[in-house]
Amino acid sequence: MQLGRLSRLKLAALPTPLEEAPSLSAYLGGPRIMIKRDDITGLAFGGSKVRKAEYLMGEAVDRGCDVVVTVGETQSNHARVTAAAARRLGLDAVLVLRGDDRSERQGNLLLDVVFGAEIRLVNTDDEFVLTGVVEDVVRELRRGGRNPYIIPRGGASAVGTAAFVNAGLELLDQLNGRGIRADAIVHATVSGGTQAGLYAATKVTQSGIRVIGVSAGASRDVSTGRVLNLTQELVELLGLDWRPHPDDIVVTDAYAGEPAGEPAADCLDAIRLVARTEGILLDPLYTGRAMAGLIDMVRRGQFAPEQTVVFWHTGGQPTLFAYAGWLAEG
Asked: Suppose 319 and one of 211, 232, 248, 283 were both cysteines; which one would form an S-S bond, judging by CB atoms 3.0 to 4.6 Å apart?
């Protein structure tokens, strides 16, 4: 495996802690739940996207780029981290975000403004329209003599995904150092890079840990396809001697909701439960949905009380403030 040959710039505070969640585990009656605290990676309120930024920005700097361009929702954690990482490295950032001029400058969108990113709000539900705007922005920048680096939604490229192979190895080292065998990792999956990288890490180490993605938007088939495609690209990038199998990729879309819509009651309940048992904050778009999925899986008996499950906290707390109206009701 050739992780070491990829360019990487230090942006994150690693390794992130692996913490027990005893009160949450007791409330649910098992299994043993541990939380991988990628919400505290350090840069700009942290989150798992900082890991990807280390590799993506490393490639951008290697290529002599002076501006980064990416795409996402108005409350995109990835866009916020991209803007912050670019500023730290002396680069500009252009964010093409799904929204309109009425979008409230709150949560991640407010932070994008604070970081001084150029924000292009596009009022569309058509992904092809957003892609077209990104292409227009890149052409515009090049005509102006700039050298842009394009980052796909969520940092979901083979380079960005490689960060989560490294993250998976980090987790396994922490588990092994404490003599713990995990049965599953549960996390929010959207663009697919986190799951693809963690899945690859569990396979190359033959750890036997199941990686379960809780979709925060797309259907199971779409999410599975994203993870499979990214894993295949990752295998080629790192020169791995195995191939991913579709049956290994576990995704549920039962808790997805709308990408930027009203949070479901089970998501809000999950946020409150984790806050009130462990003092840890989740967010309404991603980690809250993933935790709602984990809670339901436990209640339906998918995990035995004696098993160990790692919940991968991907961050996103700034979004809480953009959904204050719903959260304040409880």
From this structure: 283
